[in-house]
Amino acid sequence: MSKLLVISSAPAAMVDGTPFLDIKFCEGMNFYASAWDGEVSGLLRIQDGPFPFGRAFTLAELSFDPILLDEATPIDRDTLSGFDVVLCSGDNHRFLDLWKTRADLPAKLVYIIEYDLKTRFQIIGLNSGKGWAGKLSARLWTLRQERRRKTAFRRADGLQANGYPAKLSYGPLSRNAMMYLDNRLKPEMLATPSEMAQRQQRIAGGQLRLVNSGRLEPMKGAQDLIPIAAALARQRIDFHLDVFGTGSLEAEIRDGIARFGLSDRVTLHAPVDFETELVPYVRKAADVFLSCHRQSDPSCTYLESMGCGVPVVGYDNTMLHHLVRESGGGWTVPLGDHAALAARIAQLAQAPDEVNARAANALDFTARHTFDIEFGRRVAHLKSVLAQ
Is there a single domain that holds both residue 173 and residue 199? Predict the structure, then answer.
């Protein structure tokens, strides 16, 4: 019986003596526990008080052993002792010296990585709260961490890269690297044949239904939503855009809807439950997902939309570029060119057959990369590292 330790950057807290944990983290840990041949533990840092997207869990509800440390307690040799495999985030600079900590221990060390250096620089550049001096300082600090990160990946026993950019950047550094496509779609959540058929009938000569979901933040490109919608309205394109989310740009988007007279074209919704509300809505009422991501992070939104039978149109960041090329499930335009994005959508409004063909490609691709398949591949990879 082998023992797996997952070290996560997910938040945690103790509320009235009960663990308060991130719900998505616990769902992932449940899968590890069901697929791993042995005991599974999860290590998290404790913060003060409850946080969004979390809840209190009794120990009986958890399929893994929670190890909760305060900020001052180091992850030392004693912490890692007794485990056969340690899996931890390579995006978090606090974990980049763990290869030293476990140097004389039998535990295999595997890192997970999502952001490449280019993406980190893109995020810094999109941070409106930093002046040029702050951005320069952030870039220099990021470069120092990048050197540590590359050393850690070379010294570790394996690497799990989430998305194409991370695999291209870091895969060659590892003796045992694999790529996965993170998403929350289970097989039963995929678009059905009848929903695909109904969409084909609806968009034939009718209104093009666009959807966008996620955080309304500059790093997600939410500032481009209104300029795109306004450009489509000026061209008299028959469309409707549903936006689901909240964030620092919410008020700006609401003002833009009023200022450009888009209230009959754009609807801003509050965040809704992913599985019970957002997915059913997108499957039944959306034709194309509008993505304005300028950075190349491996957003779950791409695959989750594609699995709803909805192709993606967006900027040609590294992640979406490779995803569209591999799947045939969308379209890209030059990075940051919202006029080009509006022009592409205008073309799609007149090309229902093309939209339907890309929708079928998107669904077919995602059906081969659902949550259970991707997580299963990750566990199989960990077992292969353990067997080395």
Answer: no
